[in-house]
Amino acid sequence: MLRNGSGPRRPLPRRIAWVLAVASCAVGTAAVGAAPALAAGPRVTEERRISDRVRVLTIATDAFAKPTNVDVFLPVGYDADPHRRWPVTYVTAGTQNNYDSFRKVVKGVALTERYPSIIVSPDGNSGYWSDWYNGGAGGAPKYETFVIDQLIPLIDGRYRTVADRAQRVIFGISMGGYGAMMLAARHPDRFAAVASLSGAVNSNDPLLAGALSASSTFDGGAPDAIYGPRSTQEVRWRGHNPLDLAENLRDLDLQVRTANGTLNPGIGEQALSADLVSCAVEGGVHTGSVDFHRRLLAIGKAHVWKDYGPGCHTVPNFKREIVDALGGLAKVLAAPPAAPATVDYRTIEPRFDVWDWQVAVDPQRALEFLRLQGDRDAMRFTGSGRTSVATPAAYRGLALVDVDGTPTPVDAEGRVRFTVDLGPPNRVQQYTGAATRFATRRVAFAPHAVLRITSARRVRRGVRACVEAIGGAVRGARLRAGSRTARIDADGQVRCRVLRSPRATRVRASGADAFGHPARATARVRRR
């Protein structure tokens, strides 16, 4: 039976599981149909109290064939202050590790005693934190869907969290380093920071790719069940590979930490043990981490890069990486970066929502990358086919926005919906040998500003009128009450003028915004 849940099993020794993953690439494993999916979820079926700080949740979800477990560490002081809300740190484990590996293997409770955040450690088994392709059938397991769409809202609803990107971070070890960086790159609007610790962060590397191909067999699946064979599904591999998605990480705080695969007795590693075997593993992830580091340098992305030198894929090495990473993450949570003013994002997903942009690609288009680059004034789209787009809900209260000069209505959510024509849709999947032709189109947005007279009241000297503008400033707007007029710069701040017209019954405001759109408003004068 295909193993998608988190039931008991005897894991391979954690220090050599990655080496065996590479070796098992040549071994075929028959795929067996998954059990029927559970009811849509998630739903907590049990919560066990392990200690003052640790809870274990059992969650039923349609993302897996059986219930899954999640460790939750409450920070010191959580119960003492029932009104305080806390950041959340997600931990993604490595191959053949479980939800409780952070607690049991590296003694995570002690390591986080002074760390001011809730810790959430879900079960990744050997699934590379991805929704499995399963030979094109899809379905469970869906690790990415579980973490991003189900677990984050569940944790925010169940515990006193700060349910905001600025107070949510993620880190992982080995396969979990890949998972943390991949999830952050595919969902940069969900996390403020990400750290890879001895992470397999470049699946283009042949050795790391071999481990990924074989990893699904550890959970009873066929080789290449995660993304499909690279020879025919390379776009799926690249659509999840942190190195290929590096541009998506521009607005996150990044840490990349690794040792070089040389035994280090100074931190407690021993030659006559599995530590020595694990050195080959650390050597492999070191190569991938260096590749990723160089890619970040190439695109000008600032990040923490720490090569510890001697050290292998061992608990002592992981512990020093964790301690250092937690220090960096704590600084981010204390002073998180602001949400970006610009967007630079590429993805292979046919439908996605990022930074509140909602996009659906041409249904006739083969699987390939689409890229968004821009800001609130204009967005550049690179891809093929007719792409349906909804802007962020940034235009509430407005009626129209010009989309490339065409007045377009604003919907009830405050979005503008339009279609971008990127030429004929490519019919052949990217990276399969045929040339992929992309078109780029820039779409500009010009909102029609709206004037509002927030108040018009009679005062001793006449009429006091207060005005604001939404959707853009209206400079030098004209206020009129009876025969009296005044000029006022209307913007997002309410501004007032007194017009000496004691008998006026109405106030009128008029002007034009920065794009030349006319704006007008009228209000009845009220008594004092």
UniProtKB/TrEMBL annotation:
A matching Pfam family: Esterase
Keywords, in A-Z order: Hydrolase, Signal
Molecular function as annotated in GO: hydrolase activity
Signal sequence interval, chain numbering: 1-39
Statement: the UniProt record of this protein carries the keyword Nucleotide-binding: no
Statement: the UniProt record of this protein carries the keyword Hydrolase: yes
Top-rank taxon: Bacteria
Record-given protein name: Alpha/beta hydrolase family protein
Xref: InterPro entries: AB_hydrolase_fold, Esterase-like, Mycobacterial_A85_antigen
